[in-house]
Q: What sequence folds into this?
């Protein structure tokens, strides 16, 4: 049994002092610090007055530090798993791109394999399929030539590991596809890369769409005579992803979004591509060249292509530009995601019995220590 003490522990949305966490692979108990000596403890970790949070969950991330989900290579996934832990991420959904069907299936096969393997860092909880069932007008950085109508050929055999599918509900066959895979497999559908009208978006939501992919980006905008997909998201209780890098979305909208949707409906994501965590330069996303400069990632034609955002930085930005304290914002990267993809029985909070996914971070939200299922998977060097 191990122990973390002398920190501000996030419990039920509030930071608590003078408590200690006892854990092995899961959370055993939260006790008064004065009672630590009453337990047989193998290792004690001094948090030095810093914040102690549940591990972060990224449900939309393509790559990190030179590796990409679409590599279809298990070593690439292991490296992403290991490296994202430096940002406080303890679990994630490797996210695919719109590409040729065999390439997508190879990536899915690799994700399926790593889920059966030993966790090297952050745990792979499944996958987020972003495309190819999207619309061409709002393709964003998705290669147009691989966009297709919804087809079971893409996902057959991988239904159990696919947690989220980004889809344009207005494309032919989408509504039937959403209804079938929501009911039969519990897959979450997310509206994105979509030219849907307000009514078309509502039809998709009625059939099972329960979230929006990188809200505001790659979808029909809000107009007082044409509410579009964004209007449908705002007027329903579905979840919404947000890339809080202040590049994809102006920070002035952060507060507005909370006032409309509520803190429990927002999912902070990175949408990170392989250049994240590295220096400015030329990288790849879905077989396309991406140029990263000063944190901004674009294709040759200037289209925004993923991000270089780190999840702890997203939390920092959201806290900085809203009226909400860190204790409330952390839920936008932890328990919200866990509930969204149905793993809140073991992830998302520091409740007794849940996986010991724990992060220690300072006032600037820099990560000191990341623990995944009781193992140290990242430790800041002195």
A:
């Amino acid at each position: 049994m191990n122990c973390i003490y002398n920190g501000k522990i996030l419990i039920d949305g509030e930071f608590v002092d003078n408590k200690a966490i006892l854990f092995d692979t899961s959370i055993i108990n939260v006790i008064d610090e004065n009672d630590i000596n009453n337990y047989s403890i193998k290792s004690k970790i001094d948090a030095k007055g810093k914040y102690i949070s549940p591990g972060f969950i990224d449900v939309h991330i393509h790559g990190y530090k030179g590796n990409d989900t679409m590599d279809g290579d298990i070593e690439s996934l292991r490296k992403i798993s290991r490296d994202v832990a430096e940002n406080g991420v303890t679990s994630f959904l490797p996210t695919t791109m719109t590409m040729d069907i065999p390439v997508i299936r190879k990536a899915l096969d690799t994700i399926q394999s790593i889920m059966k393997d030993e966790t090297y860092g952050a745990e792979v909880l499944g996958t987020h399929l972003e495309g190819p069932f999207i619309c061409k007008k709002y393709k964003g950085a998705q290669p147009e030539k691989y966009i297709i109508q919804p087809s079971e050929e893409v996902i057959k055999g991988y239904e159990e590991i696919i947690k989220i599918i980004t889809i344009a509900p207005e494309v032919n066959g989408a509504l039937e596809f959403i209804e079938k895979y929501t009911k039969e497999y519990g897959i979450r559908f997310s509206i994105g890369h979509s030219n849907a009208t307000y009514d078309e978006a509502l039809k998709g939501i009625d059939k099972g769409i329960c979230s929006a992919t990188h809200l505001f980006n790659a979808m029909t905008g809000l107009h007082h005579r044409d509410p579009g997909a964004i209007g449908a998201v705002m007027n329903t209780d579905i979840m919404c992803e947000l890339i809080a890098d202040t590049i994809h979305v102006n920070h002035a909208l952060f507060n507005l979004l909370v006032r409309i949707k509520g803190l429990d409906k927002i999912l902070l994501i990175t949408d990170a591509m392989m250049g994240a965590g590295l220096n400015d330069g030329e990288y790849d996303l879905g077989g396309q060249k991406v140029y990263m400069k000063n944190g901004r990632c674009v294709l040759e034609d200037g289209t925004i292509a993923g991000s270089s955002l780190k999840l702890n930085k997203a939390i920092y930005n959201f806290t900085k530009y809203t009226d909400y304290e860190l204790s409330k914002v952390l839920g936008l990267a932890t328990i919200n995601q866990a509930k969204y993809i149905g793993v809140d029985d073991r992830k998302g909070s520091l409740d007794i019995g849940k996986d010991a996914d724990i992060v220690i971070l300072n006032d600037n939200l820099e990560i000191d220590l990341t623990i995944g299922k009781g193992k140290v998977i990242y430790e800041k060097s002195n």
Remarks:
- The chain has two domains: 2-52+352-379, 55-340.
- The longest strand covers residues 89-96.
- The mean pLDDT is 96.
- The longest helix spans residues 101-116.
